[in-house]
Amino acid sequence: MVVLNRIYTRTGDKGDTALSDGSRVAKHDPRVEAYGTVDELNATLGLCRLHATGDLAAWLGVIQNDLFDLGADLARPDMAADDQAGYPVLRIIDAQVARLETQIDAMNAHLDPLRSFILPGGSVLSAHLHLSRTVARRAERCATQLAAGGDANGAAIRYLNRLSDWLFVAARTANNGGADDILWVPGASR
């Protein structure tokens, strides 16, 4: 359980921050950028939930919780040292990725196939979901940068990749099952 008695600590006033293993890095470190972008994604999903109902609202709530797990995962370097931590280290697992895939399939079953790229927009919820999708893609790019250095959980990267797909399909679902999608018309404004 997390207990926060004080919100400000002054420990980051010189431009560094603590990772979950206690090590300190610059606030512009790629690891901090990765979990910070996941935090930003979570905030955009909060906006989505203001407009969502039913299964979509419930699923977004679960995803927001997953994103805290993901942030904790990204905030802990050196996966090889997880066994020596003395406590269970929180990592994203493939079952979380599989859950997203199941939900994508359920939503996609009610959508007509795409015959054009679509522009972000339509309903308010769809527009917010598209914004979240782009932030998810940025978070994925940040996480793959960590992976290139050999220190990122593969399941975390798969989760972010699948989440952006989930958000795309959810955006179409929020646009009256895709009927209100705004289609891209190549060269229409030349």
Task: Output the keywords.
mainly alpha; Hypothetical Protein Ta1238, Chain: A; two-stranded antiparallel sheet; 5 helices; about 55% helix; about 190 residues
What does the model show?
The protein has 190 residues and is mainly alpha-helical. The protein has a single domain (24-80, 90-110, 117-179), classed as Hypothetical Protein Ta1238, Chain: A, CATH 1.20.1200.10. It is built from 5 helices and 4 strands; from the N terminus they run ββαααβααβ. The protein has helices at residues 30-51, 54-74, 94-108, 124-148, 154-174, and strands at 16-18, 24-26, 118-119, 182-183. Strands 1-2 form a two-stranded antiparallel sheet. β1 and β2 (24-26) form a beta hairpin. The longest helix has 25 residues, at 124-148.
List the helices and strands and how they pair.
Blueprint: E1 16-18, E2 24-26, H1 30-51, H2 54-74, H3 94-108, E3 118-119, H4 124-148, H5 154-174, E4 182-183
Antiparallel strand pairs: 1-2, 3-4
Helix pairs in contact: 1-2, 1-4, 3-5, 4-5
